[in-house]
Specification:
The complex is a heterodimer.
Chain A: H1 2-11, E1 21-27, E2 30-37, H2 42-46, H3 51-63, E3 69-75
Parallel strand pairs in A: 2-3
Antiparallel strand pairs in A: 1-2
Chain B: H1 6-13, H2 34-55, E1 60-66, E2 69-75, H3 80-83, H4 88-105, E3 112-115, H5 118-140, E4 144-148, H6 151-163, E5 167-171, E6 178-182
Parallel strand pairs in B: 2-3
Antiparallel strand pairs in B: 1-2, 4-6, 5-6
Classes of the chains: A alpha+beta, B alpha+beta.
């Protein structure tokens, strides 16, 4: 559910919604959601002073109901 | 980023003791008509409704035009998680919703999002507090700084102070910006 919620939130605010990919990875103490967006949209999902990134994390954190979830915002071509 | 909402604009002015005077938030944008605001409301409602569906929240969405801004309210019983501590989740969702509107319309939006009646109840409580503080300042004749508040909350307090016939200003930096109330002769 969290991946899907995050994908919806991000797709709604970027210029290239078809390029948005969300992948979940398990961590020992929780979960990481990796969001990949078109390089031109990276600035947009981060926002001025990280404001948009913070909003995304706040909403996802609330939906996670206290469980630890990290949200990473990446360029589509970034390799991990 | 081309989008700058009221709060950003406030940050940009930066320095201390810049007043967000009562009424300033109501400044009418040229060329904003009801049709534009209704379209903003539609886009916002789709965005929020999609999230509610995914996260399995029960909520109905009401759309309204309040003054010169669109208002989208999610009405339902179990929405506390989407409001959060001091409304922080609500503020985050409003921010994202404004961006979603901006992407589709190309113009910045001042849309107001409310969830579970949070803003309405905050508004009532803060109007009352504002009136009480105004009374106190009139009685004692002393300048009174209030607790830090969000831009929305400060706006409500400024309005309450103004309707009590006093002057107030905002001081400090976000997120600790607060209202200061001045006695009549100050």
């Amino acid at each position: 559910m969290l991946e899907e919620a995050l994908e919806h939130l991000v797709k709604g605010i970027v210029e290239n919604p078809d390029d948005v990919q969300v992948r979940a990875r398990r961590l020992r103490k929780g979960k990481v959601l990796e969001v990949r967006v078109h390089p031109d949209d990276l600035g947009k999902v981060i926002g001025r002073s990280g404001r948009t990134a913070k909003s995304l994390r706040t909403v996802i954190g609330a939906l996670a109901g206290g469980r630890y979830v990290r949200v990473d915002l990446l360029d589509l071509h970034e390799v991990r | 980023m081309s989008n700058g909402n009221t709060e950003n604009a406030e940050e940009n002015r930066g320095s201390v003791a810049v007043a967000d005077e009562p009424g300033q938030d109501e400044a009418t944008e040229p060329g904003i008509d009801v049709e534009t605001l209704e379209r903003e409301g539609d886009i916002a409602a789709d965005y929020i409704e999609g999230l509610l569906d995914i996260a399995d929240f029960d909520g109905d969405i009401d759309m309204d035009v309040e003054g010169d801004r669109a208002k989208v309210s999610v009405v339902g019983t179990t929405l506390e998680e989407l409001v959060g501590d001091k409304g922080e989740v609500l503020e985050a969702l409003q921010e994202l919703t404004r961006l979603a509107v901006h992407r589709k319309t190309g113009t910045r939006s001042r849309l107001m999002l409310d969830i579970g009646g949070y803003r309405d109840s905050r508004r009532k409580a803060l109007s009352r507090i504002g009136a009480e503080v105004a009374d106190e300042v009139k009685r004692k004749g002393e300048v009174k700084p209030m607790a830090p508040m969000t831009p929305f909350e400060r706006k409500v307090v400024h309005d309450a102070i103004a309707s009590a016939g006093l002057r107030s200003e905002s001081e400090g930096e976000e997120p600790n910006r607060y209202v200061v109330v001045y006695p009549a002769d100050h």
